[in-house]
Every structure is written in C-alpha cells, then in structure tokens.
C-alpha cells in the first residue's frame, strides 16, 4: 500500500512541474486573430518572398499593382539622348517614317521622373501598347491613330491637349523634339480622364531556355539604313547587352546611365508604305522569323502574337525571357541583322 502511495505522489509531482513550466497556449495571435496553422504560416512566408514584377521577372517587395504605361519616345538624332528609357521594362524599336525609328517604352516596375521627348502616335504602336492594356501616352497622332484613339481603342493621354500643363517644353531643344512628361503627370492625366491607374498585369514568360545548341553571339548589329544614325549595336558585357546607336552609347540624358538589358529580341515583320507622307502599316499579327539573344548567345526563333504580345517560340514551343529588361527590335528583313 505504501509503495502505491509513493508512486502516486511521484506521478502527481512530475505532472504538476511539467505542466507548470509550459507557457499556456493562447487561442489568439497578438493582433487578436486566431492562430495560424503551420501550413498557413509557410504559405504566408512563401507569398511574402515570391513577389516579382510581371514584365521583368525581378523580385518585388509586394504584389505589383501599377498599371502598365506605354510612352511614345522620339528617336530622331536631335532627340538624343532620351530621358527615362533606362527605366522601361520593355522597349519596342520600330520604324516610323523613312529610316527614323520610334520607341514604345513600357513602364511598370519603375517610374522615372522625366520621360521623353514624347512623340506622336501611330496605329501599330497602339496595337503593341494594347497587348499590355497600357495607358498610352503620346504627343500628336497620325490620322489612323487619331481615329483609333477617339473611337476608344485605348486609354490615352495626348500632349496636344495638355501642352504646357501635364507636358512641358525643353527650351534647349527645338520642336517637335522637346516635349517631356513626368510619371507623376501621367498619373494626373489618368485621374483627369477617369482611367484606372492600378491593375494586375499579366506576366511575361520567364524561365530558363535550353541553350545547349545556341550559337555564341556577343555583338549584335541592327541596321535600319546606310546612315550611321540608323545603326544599332549591342555588346554583351558578360551579364547584359549594352546598347549604342549611331556609334554613341545610348544613355539617359539626366543621369548618363547606359541602356543595358538582359534580352534582345529581333523580329521580322511585313512593312508597307500607306501614304505620301511615308507612314507605314506593319503586320504584327501573322508571326514570322526572329532572333532571341540571351546570355551571350543567339537562337533562331519564330515569333507569335499572343493576346497582343510578340513572344518567342522554337519549333512551336514557347521560350522564356531572362529576368530583367527586354528590347524588341522590329525590322522589315532579318538580313538587316548581323551578329558574332
């Protein structure tokens, strides 16, 4: 009997001390919410560290809800160097009239203080902008672009109506190469017109391609005409492709930051002159041949228009972009492109 009593006392003592050393479990978090399960905590941790910008694939601190903004930027020699190009996620370079190209700079992950010089709209640039449901920013328009924009084909802010308010003129340059706008003023323009300025942007495909059979290519030349100002060159520095135009490094006017990107995508598209002024129609729907330059290599690819976006494919299989910035060069013929 005595043994049983001692044994019972020992058990009770162990139980009391064991439970006494434990912190009572609360049924609420510190913020008053019910406690999260292990699975919920892991899911939260994954979400907090998995955000990326949709058009660069680069890490973001939070879910990016900035609407894409597409700005028409002048590339006439008198407009160089431009402002804000280095912060664009994607830039299309496409012929306008003659051998002069224009840029469609698409911003989402960064918001430059100064962008320009801003130039007039063309219908095929509107088409490219709509692939990202971007707010389209221009200063002036061609007859066909005017018809499209006035019919509601895209949300837009046009310097024709905001010259001296949202847009300003740089007196050190001559018109039409001196119209500029800030990202803050673009936002004001969206508010004035009742356009949404926040939305979820569908991401580009970012994944690693098989480069086993890719050809080494560290220098790229895109020749839009025999004139030197229409020559584009990219030199791979081991990480990025550094851009030059007309034998001069392409830099930001305000900061002197060079244009350096992770992807150079060159596509061949059918060009057709449609009026006496030399304006063009460019076929961005039929697809065609192209080159994809990544990590110092080149692959011969096809391009397809997928919901308004021009994307690379190989043997019918989609290819991915390297996380970072992308420049898309559009040419009438791939013979205008050389690499080594």
Automatic annotation (TrEMBL):
Give the InterPro entries listed for this entry. DUF3048_C, DUF3048_N, YerB-like_sf
Could you tell me the superkingdom of the organism this chain comes from? Bacteria
According to the record, the residues making up region (Disordered) are 24-47
Q: Keywords assigned by UniProt? A: Lipoprotein
Every copy of the DUF3048 domain together lies at: 55-195, 220-328
Q: Which Pfam families match?
A: DUF3048, DUF3048_C
Compositionally biased intervals (Basic and acidic residues): 38-47
SUPFAM superfamilies according to UniProt: YerB-like
Q: Which Gene3D superfamilies match?
A: YerB-like
Protein name per UniProt: Lipoprotein YerB
Q: What is the lineage of its organism?
A: Bacteria, Bacillati, Bacillota, Bacilli, Bacillales
């Amino acid at each position: 009997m005595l043994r049983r009593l001692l044994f019972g006392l020992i058990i009770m003592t162990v139980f009391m001390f064991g439970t006494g050393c434990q912190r009572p479990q609360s049924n609420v978090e510190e913020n008053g919410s019910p406690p999260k399960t292990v699975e919920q905590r892991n899911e939260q941790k994954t979400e907090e560290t998995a955000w990326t910008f949709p058009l660069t694939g680069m890490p973001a601190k939070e879910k990016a809800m900035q609407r894409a903004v597409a700005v028409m930027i002048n590339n006439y020699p008198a407009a160089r160097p431009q402002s804000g190009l280095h912060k664009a996620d994607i830039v299309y370079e496409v012929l306008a009239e003659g051998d002069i190209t224009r840029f469609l700079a698409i911003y989402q992950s960064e918001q430059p203080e100064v962008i320009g010089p801003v130039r007039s709209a063309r219908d095929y640039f509107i088409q490219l902008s709509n692939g990202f449901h971007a707010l389209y920013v221009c200063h002036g328009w061609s007859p066909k672009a005017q018809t499209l924009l006035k019919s509601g084909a895209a949300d837009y802010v046009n310097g024709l109506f905001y010259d001296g308010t949202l847009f300003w003129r740089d007196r050190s340059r001559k018109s039409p190469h001196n119209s500029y706008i800030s990202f803050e003023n673009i936002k004001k323009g969206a508010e004035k017109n009742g356009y949404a300025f926040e939305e979820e942007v569908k991401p580009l495909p970012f994944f690693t391609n098989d480069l086993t059979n890719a050809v080494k290519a560290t220098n790229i030349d895109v020749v839009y005409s025999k004139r030197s100002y229409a020559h584009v060159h990219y030199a791979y520095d081991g990480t990025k492709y550094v851009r030059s135009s007309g034998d001069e490094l392409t830099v930001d006017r305000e900061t002197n930051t060079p244009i350096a990107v992770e992807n150079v995508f060159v596509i061949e598209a059918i060009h057709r002159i449609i009026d006496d002024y030399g304006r063009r129609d460019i076929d961005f729907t039929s697809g065609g041949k192209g080159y994809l330059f990544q990590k110092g290599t080149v692959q011969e690819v096809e391009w397809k228009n997928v919901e308004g976006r021009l994307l690379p494919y190989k043997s019918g299989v989609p290819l991915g972009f390297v996380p970072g910035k992308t420049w898309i060069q559009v040419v009438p013929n791939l013979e205008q492109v050389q690499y080594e």
